[in-house]
Every structure is written in C-alpha cells, then in structure tokens.
Design brief:
The chain has about 450 residues and is α/β, with parallel strands linked by helices. The protein contains 18 helices and 16 strands. The strands form 5 sheets. A 5-stranded parallel sheet has the order 2-1-3-6-7, sandwiched between helices.
Length: about 450
C-alpha cells in the first residue's frame, strides 16, 4: 500500500509549513491549498486519506469543505483547524460530520495523535466493519436497522457522543459496538458507571492521584482517563455526576488534559468520550442538576437506542439467544418457546427492556418441564408496569442477592444430604423440577 495522502488547507504559510513538515516526518504524502477553490479542485482530482482544513479561508470557510467531502467523499475523514477558544465553531463542524478538530496554536502531539487515528480508517489491518467482531446487537426490525447504520457512521468520527435510552435497552452494547468499528478498536474500552463511584473518590478515580496526596494514597495511581489512553471512555449514567465533578469533567474535555490529585501539572489525554444515561438530560439541565455547558459539550451528537416495545419483531430472536446462552452455561438442553408464549412476550411492554426479558427467561428456564417454556412458566403478572416503580424493586433484589443465594444453597445441601444425594428425590422434597434443581446447582457452583 502506498503512503497515505493528506490534503492540507490553510492560507497561513507558517501553519501550512508546520503541518506539511510534521506529516512528512510521519511518512505521509501531502498536497496543499491556500483557498477554498484550490481545495475543491484538488478534492475533485485526487482521493485523499485525510483532509485538514482551516476554518477561515480567503474565499470561503472550512464548513464548505466538510459539506463537500460529506457529499462526494464520505469515507474521507476531515478535521477542522479553529482559532483557540472557538469551541462553538468546532462543535458545529463535528455536527456537520467532521472527524475531529484542532485548535491554534497547533499542538504537534495532538496533531500526530489525530492523524494516526484518522489513518487507521484506511488501514485494512485495523478493525473495520468487514473484519470487526460479530455484531452483538441482535434484531432485524426497522429501528435496529436504522441504529446499525447510525453506529457504522458514528464509529468513524471522533466527536463526543451522547447515547440516550431507557434502562436495560443496551446503551453500553451500542457504545462497545461503536468502539469496535472505529479507529480506536485496538485500544482500551473503559466503561464507568458514574452513579457507583462515591463523590469523595470521583476526582481520584477519573484523573488519578499522586502518592501521599491524601490519606491512603500509598502509591501513584492512574485514573480512568489515563486507562483509556488512545481508546474510548464510556461514562454511563453521566447524569449522576455531582455538580463539582461536572466542572472538572468539562475542563478535562475542553483541554484534552487532566490534572491528577496532588499535582499542579496537567497530563494530555487522547480519548474518545461516549456518555449515556436513562434520564432526560435536557430536563436535568432545566432543573439545574446538570450543567448546560457540559451538556452542550457531550451532546455534540445524540444517538437514541430504541426501547424493546418499539422493536417487538426482535423479541423471538432475542429470546432464543438468551435461552441458548442459559443452556450453554448450565450444560442443559435448549428449551423451546411455545407459540402462545412467544405471542405473550411480544405483546408485553417490557418496561425493563432487554434486561427484563433476560430476567424473565432465566426464571422460566429453571421452572419449565420437558424442555418447553409455555405461558404458565412466564410470570409477567406482578411485574411493575412503569420503570420508576420497577427500579426500587430491582435495587432491593440486587442488595439481597448474596443473602438469598446462601439460603438457597443451605436448603439444597440439606435436601441432598437427607436424600443421600438422590437429586430426583431432593428436587421433589424442595418442590422443584429436576431441571430446576440442576440449573440451581450449576448456578450456585455445587455441580461441575
């Protein structure tokens, strides 16, 4: 493969020379233009692997370049060069389809990172849509087909992305797929549940700390931003961040640098930021619980994940996938869903989305007889019909899980001992089917 070819568009000779020299040291061929007219002529004549364009040109602006490339060469990433502090301009370019942006004065390390990331999109050895891992997002419904197309397009960008959707709809799965299809696929994907980190530890967890910076800091520790270096940082439930942390996060995003606790030095970080929450983030801004400037910064592009009730055609396929996984993990036959059972599932609203479907099927898997799951094995009654009602119940279940497992383990062990490890008799004594007992033994680690 020949060395990559990059188009540089800028009317300042010093900037043009700096970019040209830096790229040539990276074994990158370049073509230069000082006007919009020259740039469009070159774009019509050559196929470029990347375009770097200044925002202000003598006869137009960089946005015209972005729009032209989007229309005529959508596979060519384009990065905007903007004046320092022109964040609005950069965000406008990202919304229009720009790959990324640089600010003047140009930081050479940042430039090299951007070029390296962009050129991975042309490298057949890197992860692309043709050789990426199998798509974990199942379904063929119209909403899922639309989502797949959006993911494929957004994976090529470096723009901050806000993934919206209800709890259990698969937002992290979408984030992982975007990472897997993008130029950062070979680097780390770091998921973070913002609601699970104590507020007093947040700054240290996100940005790292130096030894001795606080009680218990016995060694230097890198933060989540440093762990995601060159890769993707996924902030789930970002609406749960306290205001003080929102301020620090905003600065880290704007400066592309973090300051570990206990030091005055900022460290540059190269990460793509993906954020998600099941809350209405615009409403959180209106109520004063989420900073408007941070919302504006992370919500450059919004990707909405459809709830399960809007993709009912996918429920049979999803159910089959869940049951295959359960059977494989417990080394048991794959049960079959009756037609009536499928119809009942397809007519249910699933306030808990795919996660709720998984929980319902796991319960039915343990209760069914003869490897058939019928209507009587699927317990939908009593499950709350609103997400707000459901969440406290789920939280209580999660907090009791270990306790209930211990009780279940003791009861099963007692029944097995009393029946001299006759599993059929033990199941009868416990009021379980033999299948259900086998599953529980596997789940509790009582049977190989």
């Amino acid at each position: 493969m020949s060395n990559p070819l990059v188009l540089i568009i800028d009317d300042e000779p010093d900037i043009l020379e700096l970019l040209d020299m830096t790229l040539k040291r990276m074994d990158v061929r370049t073509r230069s233009a000082t006007t919009l007219t020259q740039a469009l002529d070159l774009l019509a004549e050559h196929s470029f692997d990347l375009c770097l364009t200044d925002m202000r040109l003598p006869d137009g602006d960089g946005m015209s370049v972005v729009r032209y490339i989007q229309q005529h060469a959508p596979d060519t990433p384009v990065a905007m060069i903007t004046a320092y502090g022109s964040l609005d301009t950069a965000i406008t370019a990202l919304k229009a389809g720009a790959f990324d942006f640089l600010t003047k004065p140009v930081d050479l390390k940042r430039l090299r990172d951007l070029v390296t990331s962009a050129l991975r999109l042309r490298d057949p050895a890197s992860t692309t849509s043709s050789n990426a891992p199998a798509d974990p997002i199942l379904g063929s419904s119209a909403p899922i087909q639309k989502l797949r197309k959006q993911i494929a397009k957004l994976a090529r960008s470096q723009a901050p992305l806000y993934i919206s959707g209800e709890s259990g709809s698969g937002k992290e799965l979408v984030a992982r797929r975007i990472h897997a299809l993008g130029p950062r696929a070979a680097q780390a994907f770091i998921p973070v549940n913002c609601g699970a980190i104590p507020s007093e530890l947040m700054e240290s967890e996100f940005f790292g700390h130096r030894k001795g910076s606080f009680s218990g800091a016995v060694a230097d520790k890198p933060g989540l931003f440093q762990a995601a270096k060159g890769g993707t940082l996924f902030l789930d439930e970002v609406a749960d961040l306290p205001i003080a942390m929102q301020v620090k996060l905003l600065r880290a995003i704007q400066e592309k640098a973090v300051r570990p606790v206990g030091t005055q030095q900022e460290e540059p970080v190269d990460v793509r930021l993906l954020c998600a929450t099941h809350k209405d983030l615009a409403a959180e801004v209106a109520e004063g619980r989420f900073r408007q400037d941070l919302f504006y910064r992370i919500n450059v592009i919004e990707l909405s994940v459809p709830p399960l009730r809007e993709r009912r055609d996918d429920i049979p396929l999803l159910a089959e996938h869940v049951l295959v996984g359960l059977a494989k993990r417990s080394d048991m036959p794959i049960p079959e869903l009756t037609a009536a059972c499928k119809e009942m599932l397809c007519n249910y609203r699933f306030p808990g989305n795919v996660r709720e479907l998984e929980n319902i099927l796991e319960r039915a898997f343990t209760l069914c007889d003869d490897d058939v799951i019928d209507v009587g094995d699927i317990h939908l009654s009593g499950i709350p019909n609103t997400q707000s009602d459901q969440q406290p119940a789920l939280n209580r279940i999660d907090s009791l899980e270990d306790f209930l497992d211990d009780i279940e383990r003791q009861a099963i062990m007692q029944a097995l001992e009393e029946t001299r490890w006759n599993k059929t008799a033990a199941a009868k004594r416990l009021g379980l089917t033999f299948r259900s007992l086998r599953y529980r033994l596997k789940k509790l680690g009582l049977e190989d």
